[in-house]
Amino acid sequence: MAGNKQQKTIPTVYNMSSSKAREVLWALEELADTGIKYNVVNLLRRGADTYKVLKSQFPLGKSPIVTLEPVDGEPEVTYQILPNVLTEARLILQFISDHYTDGVLSQKFANGSLVTKVDNVVTFEVIPTMLFFPLRQLTLLMVMPIRNHFTNDLRVIYQILEDALSEERPWFSGKKLGLADFNMVFPMDMAIGRGYIELENYPKLAKWHYTVINRPAYRRALEKGGPYNLSTFA
Ligand SMILES: N[C@@H](CCC(=O)N[C@@H](CS)C(=O)NCC(=O)O)C(=O)O
């Protein structure tokens, strides 16, 4: 991400383990080299107080949530619904781009389709695990065709993503890393982590993901945010 702006607020990221909040930590770590400061509150998905803490910041109680602390005692600003509180990963990333970087990062590719389909597959996989014999086995038989239907649907999306990348435009944001890339990482981490993609069929997508997960800022975000396991959701 390009440049730095004078930082007027210090964000605190409420980061639940194995959640989309990691995208936000990655973006902030990319900016840490330009002097941007932030705090992180780590919460375990299955922690006793996790949802209480999240809901104390925003009633929906979903991760990520970001609160903003003015640097020079400026008055609170309502960007969304509550003063100095941000929610929704995509909007948080947009705020980071608008407020902590020089240039407005363009959002050339929406992750909406991918994240929705991946979530559908996860939902149908998780339902049987919440039941006991014999319902678990019966439900498994019922939901597997639906799960497979969504997995097949994903192939079209992967191909669109594959075709969007090239030597000249190695990032979803274009020539340079940007918002679209931060938005894409969680659903791609999930698709790869849960085995919903045959990466060998999508070499450009595979290279994009490999490049992302080997960036020092992404690695720092993994260290700072604690557990990030999208197959067990620890
Ligand atoms: N649309 C929200 C979704 C946030 C969301 O669903 N977060 C998940 C983790 S990735 C969560 O908090 N799940 C806990 C739950 O649903 O109880 C966003 O993009 O930030």
Automatic annotation (TrEMBL):
Transmembrane residue ranges: none
Gene3D superfamilies per the UniProt record, alphabetical: 1.20.1050.10, Glutaredoxin
SUPFAM superfamilies: GST C-terminal domain-like
Superkingdom classification of source: Eukaryota
Segments forming domain GST C-terminal: 82-233
UniProt protein name: GST C-terminal domain-containing protein
